[in-house]
Amino acid sequence: MEVNGQLALTVLMGILLVAVAAWIARVENWRSYSPIAGGGGYGQQDSYVSEEKPSGIIRWLTTVDHKDIGILYGAYGLTAFTVGGLMVVLMRVELFDPGMSLISNTFYNSLLTSHGITMLFLFGTPILAAFSNYLVPLLIGADDMAFPRINAIAFWLLPPAALLIWAGFFPLPDVLPAQTAWTMYTPLSAGVGAGNQANAGVDLMLLGLHLSGVSATMGAINFIATIFTERGDEVSWANLDIFSWTILTQSGLILFAFPLLGSALVMLLFDRNFGTTFFSGEGGAILWQHLFWFFGHPEVYILVLPPMGIVSYVIPRFSGRRLFGFKFVVYSTLAIGVLSFGVWAHHMFATGIDPRLRASFMAVSLAIAIPSAVKTFNWITTMWNGRIRLTTPMLFSVGFVANFIIGGVTGVFLASIPVDLVLHDTYYVVGHFHYVIMGAIGFAVFSGLYYWFPLYTDRMYQKTLAKAHFWLTMVGTNLTFFAMILLGYGGMPRRYATYLPQFATMHQLATVGALLLLAGQVIFVWNFVQSWLEGPKVEDGDPWNLRESGLYTAEWDWYDKKQQTAIADGGEESDETALTDGGQPEGDADDRDDA
Amino acid sequence: MDAEPGLSEQYRMASPWPLFIALGVPIAELGILFGLFPLSVGGLLLFGGSVAGMATESSYARTPWRAMVVVAIPLAALGLGFIYTSINLPDRGFAIIAAAVILVAGGLAGSLFAQDTEEPTY
Amino acid sequence: MANKIFDRDTLLDLTVNMVPLFIMAFFIVAFAVVTPFGVDPLASSLQFGLVAVPFVLLAILTYFAGRAVAGSEMTGELYLPGQAGVEGAKPLGEDGELMNQFDEDEEPEAAVEGEADTDDAASEDEA
Fold first, then answer.
1. Complex ipTM more than 0.90, yes or no
2. Which residue, A72, A191, A421, C43, is the most exposed by fewest CB within 10 angstroms?
3. CATH superfamily of domain region A64-535
4. Searching chain A, which residue's CA lies closest to the CA of residue C23?
5. DSSP character for B80?
6. DSSP string covering C47-59, please?
7. How many CB pairs under 8 A join A and C?
């Protein structure tokens, strides 16, 4: 039996290797394109139809173009968002009723674990990489990323990572989903004791997580190298845009945080499989928490800094004026980057660590609130007295600010030791970080997806559906997560599949909110897919009319040139005219025609 | 900003190798973690071969053959580490060394029999 | 050299990071003065180190970031953020105009008109 299994594996592996070799030999034979001899002059080259890219699915499997990779990251991130979102819908429906009704408690635990890891590692980090891959080279005037192939490797590590993380849900014999929660606290995650967490499903999940960390690290190195070395001549540090600043800081954080997670995960895997004792014995559990949160807290800022960059980028465009205190935002971003490594144990106030150390972590946690608050004031003052155009990206950005204030203020209270000791491990914490992650990060992602929609699809989305998406998401987010904050004040502990009847009303409100969110996202997917396929073509390189307020930026300039090249080459004709998403008076449009 | 449209298209924007480097890593990790010899060897071969191919493609190496030998060296060191240090996982160590040996063999064979072709021929 | 780069404007921009530095300095002093949990060689030095290390790192990073940004402001042409790569974008003017960019007491119309280069953009459109 054992030998047969090995034999079968060997045969399968051999077939795979031969198939890969054969396939590569075929693909490489297409290498008619050679860099120097190619094309025969620009005039004949169908630029942007890009002859040197293979067509069809092969193009997507072999691309090293930063824009294609950005789109791959985006598709991947949205897929993961769908999976993680559907998981939590199932959980919220279960929580409509105090008892165990729809799904078993263990399945609830599995979904809880997988929802967290999916949203943070498979949606959050990749979807931000989608924006940064597509935009940063355009914004800083680089031809591509510094290491285009490394970039592709970083992306292609992610699909196997997702398969491994979700492996427990697949109908594999003897493989159960992990039920460790996303923090993977030992000793539970070390598989000791009477539970079923010694199962191989947990190992697979840890491996997947490790892979996603490798991927993020490779991407981060690439971004740091790109922003330092590939900037155009005019793009000095003083001229660098805010989104690239946040990506640079985020990449620095990834570079220091993710390798630590990787090492800790390898140690945990060794504990589970090879009998090492890193996390068992006295102090082992607290060691894991220190290692995990030394990664985990910077991870929070890894996730929130680029969205802050997106919002800082979008809000001025629709306020008709520059970002207020641009350099305040830049320096405070850098401050967050440094300080985020000095606050990790505020997740561990309740573990009984030395009160003197707790006090220090509280001090730095309070200090890190300042740079975030500075940004909030900058966004508000940017909008103050501006010519606000409430387009969908702007609505999502304003929603970001509103939700981020609630998420941030609740966080300041948690940073205070006495308050934390009361609220620790309650739904208050869950409400707090969901306000930041869904209410802020999610909103900024949507803002960016709508703002740059013409850039990557050549089409305009349907604005009524987009606004419906916004309002459902805004109301749903606040209903769900404010109810959680109140539940936390009431003492409802987090992570449970069942609860006491006294919490039923708030839980039901939260479930209704989650269903509203679901409805909103269904509209989003419909709008996104249908508009991408059939939406009105954008003819203009300036779909948001930014030139008239002098806020036109490099990526739209690139897009404008691309449009004009396509038309000059006899590119696709379209008789439909794109409608920009609301806001500007008609006179503006006339002005533009004159120009 | 590519002021001249088409400027950034001057270099090749497609490469088959990254996908397989990324596929080789998890296969090898799975094999080594669960002690599945064929997966360990196959994954490492996929990884090492693709790294050599990519190094050649981006002109860090003139032919993939010597690059394969270079990739094999750290693998062999890792394998020896698995066997002879306190990690003490000889089965996995042998799998890693097997992959290194196959890579070296492939590299030698390639440089002996395929020296005149510019393109990787496997 | 340092004085030329760290002029009044730059220092004003850097105040944003002075506030967290001040908060941390406050706590360092407070921990020195008030010790309700006693003094223990290991725990107390960790206690101070955990605040002092971020303090020092933040100060260093702020210094170098300020030097990089303010230094390149002096040597190169300035554009609105994200606009440097736009063909035909008009550089920002002298120090005065630069200052206006970052303290926006003026009415928004002026800010919009002042930096708009619709003519350039338009001529580029037709080209």
1. no
2. A421
3. Cytochrome c oxidase-like, subunit I domain (1.20.210.10)
4. A367
5. H
6. HHHHHHHHHHHHH
7. 197
